[in-house]
Amino acid sequence: xxxxxxxxxxxxxxxxxxxxxxxxxxxxxxxxxxxxxxxxxxxxxxxxxxxxxxxxxxxxxxxxxxxxxxxxxxxxxxxxxxxxxxxxxxxxxxxxxxxxxxxxxxxxxxx
Amino acid sequence: xxxxxxxxxxxxxxxxxxxxxxxxxxxxxxxxxxxxxxxxxxxxxxxxxxxxxxxxxxxxxxxxxxxxxxxxxxxxxxxxxxxxxxxxxxxxxxxxxxxxxxxxxxxxxxxxxxx
Lengths: 111, 115
What we know:
The complex is a heterodimer of chains A (about 110) and B (about 120). Chain A is mainly β and about 110 residues long.
C-alpha cells in the first residue's frame, strides 16, 4: 500500500542543523522527493533521490535513504529563518509520476 | 519561462454552486496532475491527464468532480454542486513528455472556500 509518514513539527535554533524524517511503505518506490511549502504558497521541489542511491547532497541539503528500513531523511545545515516552512516527503511509484505525499513536517526556526 | 499558472488563486462559492479551476502547465509540458490539500493535511493525488486524455483518475471522487485537458487551452478541474467539505487548496502540477520519471512542477494553488 501507499503510505508516507512524517512527524508533524520540528523546532530548531538558527544556525543549527535540522533533520526531518520520513518513512514510506511501498518498496517499489522509484523516486523520493522533498518539497517545501511556505505559507499560502505552492510546493517548491527542493531535491529528489533515485531509489538506488543512498545519499545525495546539494549545498546545505543532504538526503539520506535507507531502503531496507524505508526511511528517508532531509538534513538542512546551518538552518536559517527563511527555512521555516512545511516540508513534504513524497514518493513516486510505477511507470508514471503519480506522487504520494506525506502529511508534512512544520519546521520552525528560532532566531 | 513562466511556471505553472493557476487561476483563480482564491475562489469563494456557496453550497450548490459550481467551481471551475484552471491550470496552465509550463511551456512544453503535456502532462498535468491535480492534487487536493485539505487543511492541515498533505496533498492527495486526484487525477493525471495528458492532452485530451485522462490517464489516471483513481483519486477523483466519483461524483461531482471532473477534469479535462483539451488540445488547446488550460486544464480545467470542475466541481459541481460544491459542499463545505470541498473547501481546500487545489494544486496543479505539470511535467514534460520526455522520459519516464520527470519531476513535477507545482503551481501556486487555488484556495476554494465553500460557504
